[in-house]
Design goal:
Strand order of the largest sheet: 4-24-18-5-7-6
Number of helices: 8
Distance between the termini: 71 Å
Structural class: alpha+beta
Helix content: 10-25%
Strand content: 25-35%
Radius of gyration: 24 Å
Number of strands: 24
């Protein structure tokens, strides 16, 4: 009797694929997976929303009488995750039965899983770069000392990022190489053969898990010879105006001539200091200077002939009288000098530092097709559909692996781009 292996083909494919998929992950293991995935179903459509946490003011009185005091507002904001495009790896596989018999599945499937993880993490790295609020060091300057990593930790600590989970600092492999010659008293203890463990430069430096990954996104800063302009209008600075997006629109002008501002560029406003989200106080860097407010441009903008345009930035400058959600010590105003940090048309590969709850990633559990399907799920909720099907007219059989991810920014003030100083 001829062999008949069709009943367990997709199960075997799913098992091998998921093992290799899990072993290749780095960046996706550093952010919140389970929170987002549990809410994503085909019925949610292209978005899924989460309620943002509230914050309050304390009232200080000598006798406890608060009858004339201003009470805190209850303002409900939402963070919305957006479903991305399908990620699919597919191939025609006429010798599937032979591969099963000869135990060749590992070497056939592993590159497919690795490719899916690599492309997913490249897209995620690009998303994180454009949607974080903080910047450590000078954009465009290479990280070449462990103090640069420590500066990122200090910034997160000063901003008030909670220490309820492990923070991560993810750098490019060549940045890790540059630091290798000055690495002292750092240790890593790999427990399993996974990309996450192998990527660890150190599992505890300045309170951060330091990793190397090729998913750190390289981008080119905007080509604008004049790096300083002014705000052409006073931006809306209320929490209500930004609570659902945590972005802010800045109208700018006076950048000489037409130029471009690229997603990922950092803008900084003179005279407006960043304050801690925890203490609501201005804080100083290690040179004793106040840290100016800065924001990350989320989408490319082409400036007109007057050097004017509207920039949408992550990490809004909020300033209100009650101070409940303030992020700056004074409101941005028309005429303020705004600067594009770093050089024009500069190729940059920033490191990424973040709390796991800065961002989230999840996957939609896909409905089965009219074929032999298996839906496999990782321990932290990644869902991948494995489909074996055939084309009778062409006398071929095929297999495809599908994943439908969604990205979300929970809190841009929990993450930043890292450079050298």
């Amino acid at each position: 009797m001829a062999n008949n292996l069709s009943s367990n083909v997709t199960e075997d494919l799913a098992r091998i694929f998921m093992d290799k998929f899990e072993a290749s992950r780095v960046l996706t293991k550093g952010i919140n997976n389970q929170l987002l995935t549990s809410r994503l179903t085909p019925s949610t459509g292209g978005t899924v929303s989460f309620k943002r946490p509230h914050d309050y003011n304390t009232i200080r009185t000598s006798g406890g009488d608060i009858s004339s005091s201003t009470k805190s507002d209850i303002l409900s904001g939402k963070a919305t995750g957006t479903v991305q495009n399908y990620f699919t790896v597919a191939t025609e596989w006429s010798n599937l039965e032979e591969a099963l018999e000869l135990d060749q599945l590992d070497e056939i499937i592993a590159p497919m899983a690795t490719r899916m993880v690599t492309d997913l993490e490249l897209d995620l790295g690009s998303y994180m770069t454009k949607n974080c609020a903080l910047v450590s060091g000078t954009p465009g300057t290479a990280v070449d000392a462990w103090t640069d990593v420590a500066d990122a930790y200090a910034l997160m600590d000063a901003v008030g990022v909670p220490k309820d989970d492990d923070w991560a600092y993810v750098m490019s492999p060549f940045t890790a190489t540059a630091l290798a010659s000055i690495q002292t008293n750092l240790s890593v203890s790999p427990e399993v053969n996974s990309a996450w463990q192998s990527a660890q430069v150190t599992n505890n430096f300045a309170g951060m898990n330091v990793l190397a990954s090729n998913a750190v996104k390289t981008y080119t800063s905007g080509a604008s010879a004049d790096r300083a302009g002014t705000l052409s209008g006073t931006p809306t600075a209320t929490y209500v105006s930004v609570k659902d997006t945590m972005t802010q629109t800045l109208s700018v002008t006076a950048f000489t001539g037409s130029g471009t501002v690229k997603a990922g560029d950092i803008v900084q406003v003179t005279g407006r200091n960043r304050i801690s989200n925890a203490t609501r106080e201005v804080f100083l860097d290690r040179s004793g200077s106040s840290i100016l407010w800065s924001g990350t441009v989320t989408a490319d903008v082409t400036l007109n002939g007057s050097g004017a345009g509207d920039l949408v930035v992550a990490g809004p400058a909020i300033y209100e009288a009650n101070g409940q959600y303030n992020t700056v010590d004074s409101a941005l105003a028309s005429g303020d000098v705004i600067t594009l940090l770093g050089s024009t048309a500069q190729v940059r590969t920033p490191s990424l530092f973040f709390h796991p709850n800065a961002f989230g990633i999840g996957t939609v559990k896909l409905p089965k097709l009219n074929a032999t399907d298996t839906v496999a799920t990782t321990e932290d909720g990644f869902s991948i559909r494995v489909t074996k099907y055939s084309d009778g007219d062409k006398n071929k059989q095929m297999v495809r692996f599908d994943m439908l991810p969604a990205f979300i920014t929970f809190n841009p003030f929990f993450a930043g781009q890292g450079f050298g100083s």
